[in-house]
Amino acid sequence: MRHQSPSSWAAICICIAALVHFALGFSVEFSVDEAHYALYAKHLAWSYFDHPPLVGWIQWPLVSLTSSEGIIRLIPELLWIISAFLVYQVTLEIHHLIQGRNAGYLTTALPSANSCGLMAVLAIIAAPLPHVLAIGLLPDTLLVPLSLGLMLMALRWTHKDSFSLGDWMITGLLLGLAGLSKYTAAFTAFALLFVFLVSPKQVWINKVGFWIAAAIALIVISPVLYWNWINDWISFKYQIAHGSGGVWAWRRVVAFMVIQIACFGPLLILGALVFIKNCINTQRWALIALLSFFIIPFTIFASLSGGGGLPHWTTPAWFCLAPFAGIGLAKAWAMQHHVAIRLLVIGQIIICLLGFGFVLLGGINSSSIKSNPIADLYGWKIAGQRATQLAQANKVNGIAVQNWTLGSRAAWYTQPLPVFVLDQRQDQFDLWFGQLPTGASVLLINWSGMVFTPPVGSHLAFEQCEHLDKLEIIRFGQVLSQFNFSLCRNWRDAGTAR
Fold first, then answer.
1. How many CB atoms lie within 10 A of CB 164?
2. Same domain membership, residue 185 and residue 268
3. C-alpha R_g of the chain
4. Same domain (yes/no): 429, 336
5. How high is the pLDDT of residue 463?
6. Per-residue model confidence (pLDDT) at position 197
7. Triad 60, 232, 422: Cα angle to 5°
8. Paired residues of 401 in beta bridges
9. Residues 245 and 298 in one domain
């Protein structure tokens, strides 16, 4: 590695990871969430039931041109590259801030800024979970570069003599776009506000630029506010209920912390601990405030995890921690802790490669189809084609499934047929396709990974369901899953089913 500069190696590592993402993007079908957000682009609106609209808007140009998963996935792959570049850039800025203000408190001299940037990039590349968001577009994929951009503006506010009107306008735009990406962008906004509050400069609230930035952010998120206003604020109500989860339990918090370490790796934690020990002083509130870009969202998600949560929600926070971890890892390397860092980097990258291979092979060979989580990524395209043929042959009103996680792939791969979700929760499918009309006949899709008994009965069900066909999904000689197709006639109580 001595033959290349740290910045060159950072670029090389980013390109290698991007090529892996590109190859995987063309190898597997859409996941549940990917299909759901791609449908956002097919049904453009000011906002949506479960998330703000940017995740759909940004896909619209490609979705309107192609249905190829690999082409559509160029968007998250590009966002990951931008995020990795911003991690490197933020690391350089934090390094300059420390060298300018905290040099007297350092126990040993810092390595070069470019070496710290390389370590930060390596810590992100070696983290397993971010590769999932680099291939599949989720709202968090959008929020990562926007959070890093806001962190960069916070750094500019911290060490610049003046914050220009242009800086304020960029900050307002980034805040607005973050709000259009995911509602949890509010946590990043709190971190930015904390940076302003601890700054020794003149009061920011009196600056015209601040109010211009606030106005820009409000204008950008106005479609979300308008859509919720005319739809009885259903998105906010859903997110509040979704975030609170079920009954709170300490065991869920412990499980959350263990899963976080597994998903993002100990390398980021080690680097952050070394940074806090050697590069930060209790009097240096600027660095503590910048660390809040990780601390605030992570603490909130950890506290909410007692009621339930998903591991990828913290991804923007971990990316914001990566610059600090990179500086800490570079310092640990300079302190001759080579073996530990090498073992962690190599070990985490091996885990990532095993995960990639696991996905390409179709998962584990198991006697139980339900025990293979990778089975969910294969078969939906051909199942959608079969379902479309059967629906047309039997002249039915549409496709039906019994859970929304089945509905997103069914709706994507059977376009333009309407898809009805036969459960009792309100969701985006109700807004797109409405409720199944009384007396309607549909093609019911049942998937072996989430089996339901066909709804046949006297009150809230079909008059009868007739099995038509089944489809086994085989990859490398292994049966991954099975689809069953039934013709269900005369839906007799749509209201009660909801």
1. 11
2. yes
3. 25
4. no
5. 87
6. 87
7. 70
8. 421
9. yes
Q: How many CB atoms lie within 10 A of CB 191?
A: 23
**pLDDT band at 456; cut points 50, 70, 90:** confident
Q: Could you say which of 359, 387, 416 is where a domain stops?
A: 359
- Give every strand in the sheet of 478-491, ordered side by side: 419-421, 399-401, 442-447, 478-491, 462-475
Measured at the CA of 371, the angle between CA 311 and CA 303, to 5 degrees, comes to 20
Instruction: Identify whether 283 is part of a domain.
Output: yes
Angle between helix axes 315-334 and 74-101 (nearest 10 degrees) is 50
Q: Evaluate whether residue 390 is within a structural domain.
A: yes
- C-beta of residue 410 within 8 angstroms of C-beta of residue 488: no
| Distance separating alpha carbons of residues 54 and 226, to the nearest angstrom | 15
- Which residue in 110, 96, 191 sits closest to 151, CA to CA? 191
Percent of the chain with pLDDT over 90: 67
Is residue 260 in a domain?
yes
Q: Closest by alpha carbon to 381, among 35, 48, 87, 94?
A: 35
pTM equals: 0.93
Number of domain units in the chain:
2
Taking residues 440-451, report their average pLDDT.
Answer: 91
Residue, of 26 and 397, whose pLDDT is higher: 26
Tell me which amino acid residue 61 is. P
| pLDDT per position as a tens digit, 260-311 | 999 999 999 999 999 998 887 755 788 999 999 999 999 999 998 888 888 9
The two tokens of residue 435 are: 């409720």
**337, 377: one domain:** no
Q: CA–CA separation, 339 vs 345, rounded Å?
A: 10
Based on the fold, state whether residues 254 and 305 are members of the same structural domain.
yes
- Domain range for 322: 6-359
As a whole number of angstroms, the distance between CA 66 and CA 46 comes to 23
Residues 92 and 198 in one domain: yes
- Tell me the one-letter amino acid at 322: A
Q: How close are the terminal C-alpha atoms of the chain, in Å? A: 61
Do 202 and 240 lie in a common domain? yes
Which residue's entry shows tokens 């390109």?
15
Question: Does residue 48 sit within a domain?
Answer: yes
Collect all residues with Cβ–Cβ distance below 8 Å to 270 and sequence separation of at least 6: 325, 328, 329, 332, 340, 341, 344
Could you read off the pLDDT of 312-334 as tens digits, one per residue?
999 999 999 999 999 999 999 99
Residues 21, 144 share a domain: yes
- Confidence (pLDDT) at 172: 97
C-alpha 264, offset from chain centre:
13
Q: Provide the residue type at 323 as one letter.
A: P
Over 37-66, what HEC string results?
HHHHHHCCCCCCCCCCCHHHHCCHHHHCCC
Cα–Cα distance list, 459 to 59, 170, 442, 451, 456 (Å): 41, 57, 17, 21, 9
pLDDT, tens digit, 9 for 90 and up, residues 183-239: 999 999 999 999 988 876 667 788 888 999 999 999 999 999 999 999 989 988 888
Cβ–Cβ < 8 Å for 125, 268: no
